[in-house]
Amino acid sequence: MRLYVNIMKTLEANVSGVERLMAEKVTTQVLPLVLVDIDSVLGDANGLLLRIIEREFGCKCTRDQITHWYLSDCLPITQEQENDLFAKYFFNELLDMELVDGTLAGLSWLAQRAMVWLVTARPAHCDGDTIDWLLKHDLPHHGLTLHAGCKTTLLAEHSIDLVIEDKGSTAVAFAERGVPVILFDYPYNRDVVHPLVRRVSGWKDAVEILQTLMKENP
Ligand SMILES: [Mg+2]
Questions:
Q1: What's the gap in Å between 136 CA and the centre of ligand 1?
Q2: Cα 121 to middle of ligand 1, angstroms
């Protein structure tokens, strides 16, 4: 595993004073750098979306029905309703998102052994809600990049050891660039098969794989 000293460069504009202090302390240690997604890895995005769909459109759907990334491709809602859904999701609802099972224990375990860099592609107007939500749940992390856009562009300046994601195309994009990925399993990402992508059912599973990886790459 490599040494990470440059993370502050990218994080400078995005981290609070406390986070900056934490990052300065860890830059002198040899720790793996792990990129961790927020929606559907830390937070139960699907649960929140399903609640909004039922409330706004009177349509009761299940998690198993979410078989595509675009919800109007798999649920009985129109493209227009999907746009409306995400407008609501990103503007008013994020603070109500619950945690994915095992998130706090899993992330706490990881943050003691690696630099946890949270990265989200949520639009910029969600920045405040995202930070408030992380504080609300006291989720440990060393760095945070908001409205990241295309996450693989971070590879231009950082040696990233591992990515934890749920979006299939992002997982494949990192894997094709040689970065191992732990992919949280959802019906909409089951088409992803790549030797560097390890599929997990949740945080408990992820920690078991991380333990093995860290033993193999001390
Ligand atoms: Mg996600």
A1: 19
A2: 8
Distance from C-alpha of 49 to C-alpha of 53, rounded to nearest angstrom? 6
Measured CA to CA, the distance from residue 34 to residue 77 in angstroms comes to: 36
The half-sphere exposure of 124 on its side-chain side, counting CA atoms within 13 A, is 2
CA of 133 to the centre of ligand 1 (A): 15
Q: How much is the pTM?
A: 0.86
Per-residue pLDDT tens for 13-60?
Answer: 444 444 554 555 455 557 899 999 999 999 999 999 999 999 999 999
Q: What is the 3-state secondary structure (H, E, C) of 161-193?
A: CEEEECCHHHHHHHHHCCCCEEEECCHHHCCCC
Instruction: Tell me which H or E stretch contains 105.
Output: helix 103-111
For residue 130, how far is its CA from the centre of ligand 1 (angstroms)?
Answer: 13
Q: Cα(24) to centroid of ligand 1, in Å? A: 27
Name residue 161's beta-bridge partners.
Answer: none
- State the distance from the centre of ligand 1 to the C-alpha of 40, rounded, in angstroms: 5
